[in-house]
Amino acid sequence: MTSVVNEQREIWDAVSEGWRRWQNVFERGAASVSTALVRLGGLRPGHSVLDVGTGLGEPALTAAGVVGPRGRVIGIDVSPAMISAARARAAHLPFAEFVVGEVTTTALAPGAFDAVLSRWGLMFAADRAATLRALAGLLRPGGVLAAATWAPPPAVPMISLAFRVIAERLALAPPPPGLPGPFSMADPKAVAAELAEAGFTEVTVTERKVPFVMDSVSHFVAFSRDVLPPRMRSLVREAADPLIWEAVAEAAAAHARPDGSLDLTSTCLCVRGVR
């Protein structure tokens, strides 16, 4: 498991600058999911909240706006670079803390949290079953886990489109099943079963549309370049195929609206379970 965590850390550190660059554009759509998770978690002023896989600080920052200074928010992520960015964004919120770590190995008090949130983070857990069990133990009785995961790739063009085109041009084999990744929790029935196995009750999984819009095809190509994981970035460089990004642009153009912007509305699964 240590090797998987280290690999995840390297990946997210490598792409952190790209995600920071596109943060505002991404949040135009993603913010609605943070709001939905806060609502599903039943957050109120004074609550204590853990955000798992917080990345650049969401939904921790949205949660902080709800729980207020009488509450407490901790965001945790394996990537020091991501946590550094989140801390900078939360500098005005003394009750919001961001730590580098992984929930199965970080010292967090059992039963300390009213809610655990995670926006597109649980899919990357090195050992998801152990992570879910740990999260159940961190919640007080009646506490809520509210998380967002991605639906299957065809329903998530914002994330999957460029990867799909590049994989096709480079004839890359699909990743082995069971590995952490953006679509490792795309099956609603399997996700519900995982939460139940970890000890959660009243489990629900609902689809939600995420209204991603990019200003143009060229903007989408630039975004895709900036957030491309290092391994795939190396494969693209080694292939020296001058048409790869043209192929991505052509595929993206299928989502163009009359004004030239791209409608990349994507589907996520909003998962809720009670301790």
Task: Give your account of this protein's structure.
This protein is an alpha/beta fold and 275 residues long. Strand 2 (72-77), helix 4 and strand 3 (96-100) form a beta-alpha-beta unit. It contains 10 helices and 9 strands. The longest helix has 20 residues, at 2-21.
Secondary-structure class: alpha/beta
What form results from the Cα inertia axes? globular
- Spatial strand sequence of the major β-sheet: 3-2-1-4-5-9-6
Uncertain segments are none
Q: Could you tell me the radius of gyration in angstroms?
A: 18 Å
Number of helices: 10
User: Whole-number average pLDDT?
Assistant: 96
Work out the strand percent: 15-25%
State the end-to-end CA separation.
26 Å
Total beta strand runs: 9
Element-by-element helix/strand order? HHEHEHEEHEHHEEHHHEE
How much helix, percentage-wise, in residues? 40-55%
The largest pleated sheet is described as: 7 strands, mixed
Salient structural properties:
alpha/beta, seven-stranded mixed sheet, 275 residues, 10 helices
Task: Describe this structure in a few short sentences.
The chain is an alpha/beta fold.
